[in-house]
Design brief:
Elements lengths: L6 E7 L2 E7 L5 H16 L4 E5 L8 H16 L3 E5 L3 H9 L8 E2 L2 H8 L9
Parallel strand pairs: 2-3, 3-4, 4-5
Antiparallel strand pairs: 1-2
Helix pairs in contact: 1-2
């Protein structure tokens, strides 16, 4: 994997999609596959998504902007986006940018799924 690509694992549990990026998301170019994945899921009716950031050490403005955009898309479709595996450093970035109140954050994917999965939404096809 080079510095211009990032692998994104996609799993489903209880009708919730879990996206786990592997590799640093540091440029807008890398965000294109991420954005396309979220939009494809939303078109299929999967509107509850957990982003597992446990492999990420840092997030920048490009990813923060994309997360806000995707959360708006999902909320407009009756779903939501939340974050799991948030490190202390990423939590600090969310606090500094005043986004900590916008994104539900959880220490584990299981807790995120339990929370976001408690709202009705279409199951993955």
């Amino acid at each position: 994997m080079d510095k211009h690509t990032v692998a994104i694992d996609e799993t489903f549990e209880n009708g919730v999609a879990v996206l786990t990026p592997h590799g640093p998301i540091v440029s807008k170019l890398i965000l294109v596959p991420f954005r396309e994945r979220v939009l494809r899921l939303a078109k299929r009716g999967v509107t509850r998504i957990v982003i597992d950031l446990s492999d990420e050490r840092w997030i920048g403005a490009a990813l923060l902007g994309e997360l806000v955009r995707e959360q708006d898309t999902l909320r407009n479709a009756g779903g939501d986006l939340c974050l799991a595996g948030v490190s202390d450093k990423i939590r600090q970035i969310l606090n500094i940018t005043a986004l900590s109140s916008r994104f539900p954050t959880f220490g584990t994917v299981a807790r995120a799924i339990a929370c976001i999965g408690s709202t009705p939404a279409t199951r993955a096809a």
